[in-house]
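Next comes this protein.

***
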Amino acid sequence: MKKSRGRTGRKRRRKHLKSFMDGVNCSHKLEYIKLKKWLKERGFEDSNLRAAEFWETGRGLMTTKALQAGDLIISLPESCLLTTGTVLSSCLGGHIEKWKPPVSPLLALCTFLIAEKHAGEKSPWKPYLDVLPRAYTCPACLEPDVIKLLPKPLKKKAQEQKTMIQELFRSSKAFFSSLQPLFAESTGSIFNFSALEWAWCTINTRTIYMKHPHRECFSLEPDVYALAPYLDLLNHSPNVQVKAGFNEQTRSYEIWTNSQCKKYQEVLICYGPHDNQRLLLEYGFVAMDNPHSSVYVSADTLLKYFSPLDKQRKAKVSILKDHDFLENLTFGWEGPSWRLLTALKGLSLAPEEFACWRRILLGDVSSARNEQQALGTAAKICQFLIEETQHVLLQVSQLKRDEENLKTQLALVEMLRSEDLKILQKSAEILCNLNLGT
C-alpha cells in the first residue's frame, strides 16, 4: 500500500510541476472574477482565455483550446477601452477643455488614472485598476545604483526617461492645482510625483496603438493611446507573429494570430521586432534568446582603438558622423553588423587609400590590409566588451547578496547582461573564424 501511494505522490508532484511549467490557472482569484464580470457588463464575451501565472513570463493568458494560424485571439469592444474620449466624458472633461495651454493626450490619461485610483471603491474602473501592477521596472523607476550597471546607451536613455517624467511633473503642477474643486483632499497629495510616475509607466508599458482624431482641447502631440483591460495581460515573444488593430466594422480592438498555440499554453503576442534594450526601456522586461537583440558599441569605445596621431583621424570621424556611421553600431548573433565593420574600415584607411572613402561607405573593398585591420579591431572591441560585461555581472551578483530590496531590479540587469554576453561570445567566435579565413 505504502509503495503505490508513494508512486501516485510522485506522479502528482510531476503533474503539479508540469502544470507550473505550463502555467498555473489564476482565473479563480477574486480580482480576475471581478474583472471578467466588469468586462462582460461592457459587452466582452470570451470563453477561451484564462489568467495564469507562468514560470518564465509571470502573469499572462493561457488558452483553453488549441489556436491555429489565422484564429482570432481576442476581440475587445470599444466600450472596454480607456482613451482620451473616456477622460473627456468624466468629471475631468470640463476642466481639461478650459485649461490653457492645452494638456497633452498623455497627461490627460495620466491624470485620469491617478484620479480613478484615488477614488478607490467609487471608481467605475476599479476592477481594471486592481489588476494593474503596483510598481514597474522601467529604467525610470530603477534605483541609481542599478542604473549605473546598465550598458552605456541604455544608461543615457534611462536618465532621459527619468528627466522627462520629472519635467512632465514640474510642468503639470499648475494644471493639477486647477482640479482642486473636484477633491476634498489637497491635489498636491493626490497628484504627487510617485503617482504620476506610476500612471506614466502604466500607459507607456501597457497602451495599444489607436489613432484618434485631434481635439482642440489637447496639445498637438499625437493622440494614439488606448488602455485595453485583460488584453494587456498578453505577454511578448519575439518568435510569434500577430495582426492587431481596431476593427471599424465590429468597433473592437482585435488580435489575430499567425502562429499555432497548443491547448493550455500561454498565448503570446509580439510587441514588435525590438532588441532587449528597447524592451527594457519601453516595457520593463528582457526576452531570453531574443533574435533581434544586439550589443551597442559607443563612438567613444570605437575611437579608443585608433591612434590620435593619425593626421586624417579628424576628417575620418567627421565623414562617419556626417553619413550617420557613428550611431547604431552593434554586435549581433551573426557577428559585427555591416555598419560597425564599415565604420571600422573607414577609420582603418591608410593615407594613400583615404580618397576612396565613398566606396568604403557603399560597401566596396579598399584593400586586403584594410579588411584585415577592420576585422582585427572588431575582435579587440568584442573582447573588451566581453570583459566589461563579465565585470558588471560580478558586481550584480555581489549586490544581489548585499541589497535584498534591489533583487528584482538587479535580476533584470543580470538577464540583460547575460544575453549581451552570449551575443558577444558568439560574435567573438565568428570573428575568430573570419580572421583565420583571411
Residues 1-8, 15-20 have pLDDT under 50 and may be disordered. The first strand starts at residue 24 and ends at 25. The chain has 17 helices and 13 strands. The domain at 294-437 is CATH 3.90.1420 (set domain protein methyltransferase, domain 2).
